[in-house]
Design goal:
Elements (H helix, E strand, L loop, with lengths): L5 H5 L5 H45 L11 H7 L1
């Protein structure tokens, strides 16, 4: 073992497994964050497209007059 110095005496050196666990944790969190960012971006894109489609559909709604249907009674009197 080396002689104690200012750095080794006051700052514990992490074990090899702790370091690997820290790296794994950091990488996993980065992956999860990137997936979350991508999901939010897609959600915003789809929301904008949906709102645009709804706005376009609201402008194009044709006004149609309802026609009176012939009832069986009216059709029978004409025959």
């Amino acid at each position: 073992m080396t002689a104690p110095t200012k750095d080794t005496l006051f700052r514990p050196v992490p074990s090899r497994t702790e370091t690997k666990a820290d790296v794994t944790d950091r990488v996993a969190r980065e992956i999860i964050q990137s997936e979350t960012d991508r999901r939010h971006a897609l959600t915003e894109k789809l929301k904008a497209a949906r709102l645009a489609q709804e706005a376009a559909a609201a402008e194009v709604v044709p006004v149609t007059k309802s026609r009176a249907r012939k009832t069986a009674k009216t059709a029978a009197s004409h025959a």
